[in-house]
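Hi Y.,

Following your request, here is the sequence exactly as I used it, all 814 residues.
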Amino acid sequence: MRSFVVGLVLGCFYLQTRSMLPDQPAWATVVLSLLMALSALGLDAGRTAGRASDKSRHTWTTFALASSAWMISGALLGVGYAQYRAETRLAEALSREWEGRDIELVGTVTSLPTLTERGTRFMFEVDASSVKEARVPRNISLTWYVEQPRNNEPPKLPPILTPGERWKLSVRLRRPHGTANPHGFDFEAWALERNIRATGYVRVKGINQKQLDAADGMLVRVDRARLAIRDRMQAALQGQPYAGVLIALAIGEQNAIPAAQWKTFWRTGTGHLMSISGLHITMVAALLYWLAFRIWARLPHLTARIPAQRVAAMVGAITALAYSLIAGFSVPTQRTFLMLLVVAIALTTGRAITASRILAFALLGVVLLDPWCVLAPGFWLSFGAVAMIFYVTAQRTGQLSVVRAALLTQLAVTLGLLPLTLALFQEVSLISPIANAIAIPVISWVVVPITLVGALLPAGLSDVALQLAHWVMILTYDCLAWLAAMPNAVWQSHAPAMWTVALAVIGVVAVMMPRGLPLRWLGGLAMLPMFVVLPPSPKPGELWLTLLDVGQGLATVVRTATHTLVYDTGPKWNPDADSGNRIVVPYLRGEGVRTLDALVLTHDDEDHVGGARSVIDARSPGWVLTSVPNDRDYLANAGEVMRCEVGDGWRWDGVEFDVLHPARPAYEETRKTNNMGCVIKITAPGGTVLMTSDIEKLVEAELVARAGHELKSDVLVVPHHGSKTSSTEALLDTVQPKLAVLPVGYRNRFRHPHPDVEARYAARNIPIRRTDWEGAITLKFAADAMGKPSVESYRSRRQRYWTDMPEKKIVGEP
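Below is the corresponding structure, written out as tokens. Let me know if you'd prefer a different format.
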């Protein structure tokens, strides 16, 4: 059983790492799995016969063969099953010709609406479409934006939506397409797992009507109950700073927790407690189990018919299911419910079951429910934590004291999850053991029970309980914030190679073996490569330039042998999220760049400086070069800030950087911010790059007149995202690039690049590489590249079968 489940998980994971689905039909792989299972059954029968005849050597050999056969059978089933589910889900795809076009849909609100400053986001199940040939997927994610009036009238808010309501909506859709960057979030995988096959927004000027009939069913009722609890808690805790935390603990809705609080929880390693985790569900189920057992045991006439243990087990399982459904049935809640269900069945039937089998049954259930769960960090961290707890407790003999058991458990979880944490996030909280020792008992045994009581009590009584829970949360957060403020509370690392992670996991298992066993110290050696094997970096004289995919904006990382420069930081999406903290900083961290030598902020446009504050706060650049005024709030924490001006330049590791614009007189004139962009030419032994920001025709003409042949470069970063106001013929003829790289957003509202601009590049046979279709683009100039860098597209390098790949060839290529 356990070997089969491990194989099943590995098979699912293998398929999710493929760039294309197998040509072989899924059913054929499942048949092979069944044949291998029959072989394993035969080997098991042989092992039983060998045991009966006391042929120990034969028995162990047969056991190894049988375990291998079961694992192969599980792996084949995992591949076949995941392939079938993938083919079924990918069959529902929005056709490209209907992206961005008005479509009228009739359907049902199927999720808890998420309220933001910009509008309401919700899941919508489509029942009918006004255009049959559009082939609209059944499950889509929509945003109903706040309507901003043109006059001084107040903004018009979207209507209040309730799960189960049916609406006729006018929408514009697009395929699930996110930014694609190394060490970044894969939105397309996330959307596929949640069966979001298109995203879009409601046209506020369209025909949007609520229908008279409404959907019903268990899941709709659960979502309505969650909505009612959220509304009641928001009313009771209005204006309270940690209302979002209590709502997350009650119904698993985490969107209301501010980013500043998440940062504190992350730095202290307590983020797992601020949602409905397996620990919370286990605690509540155990409490109800104990109450049911105590009450039932005091009723002899009932106990004679049904043992108290059996009734208590059923009550605990039902409680776990109810809490899991209210929580949204995420992977940790699924794992916990299935584990508790197995325990309840074992108690009910009177059968003994080992901890490893409980974990295996939970793994089997979770993967069968969702074969994409193996892509989620929560899957590996959740099951990994429980596996380590089972491992260290099962390896010890004798009774441990409560304190010693708690310390051993915390050590096992912290050390056991270290390889996975570094692989997934490249940072780990050093104060996590202390913070969790304080937070776990307070949150799990005080805050959560009081919050649940407050969420379920009627209005009036619930207010008292919720205010009490919030008061305890204030004290807890103050303690965590004090710990988080400690210097070096979080240790950051590079993204370790996968082979070093696998070796470190083996090392952790060895280190956590009981004392007295030989060669435990080898486990520590096995963990070392994860820390000392560094990612590749430029050699002296080399230039590596990565245009990150930040949507409609620009963020570029330039690296030499010992220095790193960030040229613009991309857009800001909301007060908590920008391309600095979502894309640029994770990229630097994953690549092992701990110090940033310089930051260039070319001009004062949101799509270029939106992530500046996040980058400055996270990496403290040695100096900032910019054309924007020094009083901008995002420069508040910057060190030395210098004005970008013609004639400035520097040399790093044999690579020269020269500022070509703006000239000093430009600062005395009134110009568009685009025309104040800081233009830099980079000259390396292997080639040259011209970084042009958002300059337009006026500045292009000035550059051609002032710099002339000095503009000639091997690579041109296309000015102003391919706008019709830029890339004049004079500039292209002067620069004469062999390659152009275009930072542009997928289906952006400006419709960049303009067809006339594309035609100019094509007429000169200049290939254009685009971030919207290729993701982050990395150019590597070797010292002897002779102007021809190697070009690496992140989408091509990390393509998965769900990746939205370009259908058009590169502009300018023959």
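The first strand starts at residue 102 and ends at 109.

Thanks again,
Q.
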